[in-house]
Amino acid sequence: MKLIIGAVIVFASVIVGFTLAHGQLMAIWQPVELLIIGGSAIGAFIITNPGKVVKKTLGAIPTLLKGSKYNKKSYMEVLALLYDLFNKSRKDGIMSLEADIDDPKQSPLFQKYPKILKDHHVMDFITDYLRLMVSGSMNPFELENLMDIELETHHHEAELPSHALTNMSDGLPGFGIVAAVLGVVITMGSLGGPVQEIGAHVAAALVGTFLGILLAYGFVGPMGAYLGHLAKEDAKFLECIKVCFLATLNGYSPQVAVEFGRKTLYSTDRPSFQELENHVKGRK
């Protein structure tokens, strides 16, 4: 929704401003210029990025309409899940989690949190490190180092669509200049003809520059930046889980461990201590 609202504001501001300045709308309707700029940008995008990045970027476009899937409610859910896991481990021993880890979908504990259960990235992260904890072969320092490496890799991969669109945005003004130069070439070929025809060709050439800049800074660039913000929120969710794991490995109680995780959250998504405590107690 934010994407649509923002795009409408950008488009309306340009069109209304141009109209109020007594501009003729048909003068900026240049589909051929748009074809040159858009086609060149898409071609360069395909050349620049490996196939997996192209596929990942196309798959990330719908998230621009949906926004972040992580919010205050999501954090309360995952913290409550971690509390239940740590509490069960503390009462019945770490080996009691083995059945839950092996088949999370059939685990009564995980079934209490269907939203988390559907997020395969989060589930893989939680179950993988629980398996390492069950094996008992790693100390907290080794586990923290492994988590940092995995989170860095995950974040780098999550940012690939953002970088791809940002690079595409950087090239759009240049392709606008290409379209403008081609328009000048056509204009030069019309010299000696009717003044109106020459003026129309000059206008079309200038529109090429205008479209390249508008697409870059009004649409594609902001889309890339927004995907970057979504990637950071995704990384923050996993970082919260990591901090909770490390706290429990260092001997803190389940309640204190999830409090460590709560403290890592952005202020806009962070529940209060009382909110989290009431939620955890309510899910028992």
How would you characterize the overall build of this protein?
With 284 residues, this protein is mostly helical. The chain has one domain. It is 80% helix and 0% strand. The longest helix is centred in the C-terminal third of the chain and has 55 residues, at 195-249. The protein is elongated. The two termini are 36 Å apart. The model has no long low-confidence stretch (mean pLDDT 89).
Structural class: mainly alpha
From the N-terminal CA to the C-terminal CA, the straight-line distance is: 36 Å
Q: So how many helices?
A: 13
Strand content: under 5%
- Low-pLDDT ranges: none
| Biggest pleated sheet | none
Structure, briefly:
The protein has 284 residues and is mainly α. Helix content is 80%, strand content 0%.
Task: Set out the fold topology.
Elements: H1 2-20, H2 31-48, H3 51-66, H4 72-92, H5 98-102, H6 108-111, H7 114-118, H8 120-135, H9 140-158, H10 160-189, H11 195-249, H12 254-263, H13 273-282
Jot down its keywords.
13 helices, 284 residues, mainly alpha, elongated
